Amino acid sequence: MSVLYGYGGNVLDIDLSTRRVSKSQLDRDFARQYIGGRGFVARLLWDLIPKGADPLGPDNVAVVASGPLTGAFLPSSSKVEFGAKSPATGGYGDSNMGGHFGPALKHAGYDVCIIRGASSTPVYVVIDDDIVQIRDASHLWGKGSYATEKALKEELGDDFQIAVIGPAGENLVKIACITHDFGRQAGRCGIGAVWGSKRLKAIAVRGSRGFPVADPAAMFKKGKEMFDIIFKLPGFKEWTPYGTAEITDWCNKSGVFPTRNFYTGYFPHYQQINGRALRNSIVTLDKGCFGCPIPCGKYSHVNLPQGLARVEGPEYETVALFGGNCELSRIEEIAFANWLFDDLGMDTISGGNIVAFAIECFEKGIISEDDLGGKPVRFGDLDSVIHIGKLIANRHLVGDLLAEGVKTASAHLGRGSEHFAIHVKGLEVSGYEPRYAAAMLLAYMTCDVGAHHNRAWAITYDIAVGRDKLEGKAAKVVELQHLRPLLDALGICRFPWIEVGFELRHYAEIFPMITGSEQTWEELNTLSERIWNLTRAFWVREVPGFGRSWDRAPGRFLADPVPSGAAQGKLLGEDIAEQLLDEYYRLRGWDEQGIPKREKLLELGLSDVACALYE
Predict the structure, then answer these.
(1) How far is CA 605 from CA 161, 164, 609, in A?
(2) What is the pLDDT of residues 274-296, one digit of tens each?
(3) Residue closest to 67 by CA, chosen among 42, 48, 84
(4) Residue 215 covered by a domain
(5) How far are the Cα atoms of 232, 275, 298 from residue 238, in angstroms, in the given order?
(6) 3-state secondary structure of 67
(7) CA nearest 299: which of 183, 461, 426?
């Protein structure tokens, strides 16, 4: 068989029910049609998960996949994708992570790791090049994320890259994440709960191999050029000291900073929690992922009455969701909340949403002190955030309900709480208030995992071209939903492009040097469209009655004008949201309910998917 350039070349298949481990070669056509990372995850979830499988049952399949640029010693080439049928939403789920885990897996020779079945006892997986073992994890079960990774480093060696779940994953909390390198997370969609349902505590990887590239000399020359360009960009010096928290001021000034459970988009104490406050008050060290010249990670150290915390972060999303959304007005408090949720193994985006939702429910008398174990809670209080977080992770008292996410919790609680349950498709909204930002609102409504910014961070486009302008907004969302996920498939981080201003043409130029493929950047975007339609089809297959009603924004976003800040008094409203959906579906080639048409699936080479949906 000829060399498959740009790939480790192997698929690792692990069945935890039978303790069977098998390996196979990565199929060339599969690699060319789905690229890697998110594309591999999407196709494998469609192929391997039986229709109607319980997300927390043994029939669900967890997939880990890198891309052709992962681990290639290029700027920010660290990315790896974790996927499964989402317990948070019941639909398609994946989450992206940086650090060093993805490159290590690829350097061990594996582009994909498939995890099937469920163990009867806690286990962890060790991948050491060709040697793959399933080991007992009883001594690790119940430990926090930090202690688990530390214990495995001591047990296996510092050169192993380790991904773990915390107690929340073990307790099947539906916002449970996967943590790596003491601070990198695959946070969204509850993939950590899927690992917990399989009794999988961790995967540890050590890879000592390279992987073949088509033109090593050209790749080395181009890669060096890419690093040199990034170092000279104005954005490099602007963003490096503060990381993603740098955007806090812009979001607040623009009136899109989520505050008090998305009640408004302006937080008056923003200067106490922004990037400069972070840098000047608590940062002890910068941290970058594999191959990254822009260390956006910030190691922080705080010592509060609530305890000592050393944490990587907070990044912007955590600042937004624990800062503005829960109204914590000191960066030290946000860092402590960040550390707690990381250690418990919970997504800080969904976590900050759920805590804020619970506090608003308490304020309105929907949740009682008895529900909370006798403790009143309020906005702006770190102890309240800690208390609710621990209830959720341990599924104790009302935490057992909150652990299901705000969609399920509000459906159970009722009494108007559905109106301020801030989610789309069951996934809590990330850190941008979109009531007067049409493209961002539409991006949330149509994101293929639920409300998440990483598929189409359209808020800057809204501000740049004017918020009152609707023309072209749907087209921009479609464009971004092909482009940004393409980077997830390739295995590279968006940070150099979005924040620093690095031109995407450089990735288009180096792609054939690595893979030997003649596929153009435009052709790769078409493959990204194929992946987007495949994930949409997954929802149609797995969720009875799925359609337009699932692309609905939260009630607060459709009915309540923004009360303060730059967007004060503004509201796009339900009619405009529906108009945007109509245009979006038309551009996508979907019907009026948002279902991909047969001819669109056939056009994209998804004939088997078309047969499954239209049999």
Answers:
(1) 37, 36, 9
(2) 999 999 999 999 999 999 999 99
(3) 42
(4) no
(5) 11, 11, 15
(6) coil
(7) 183
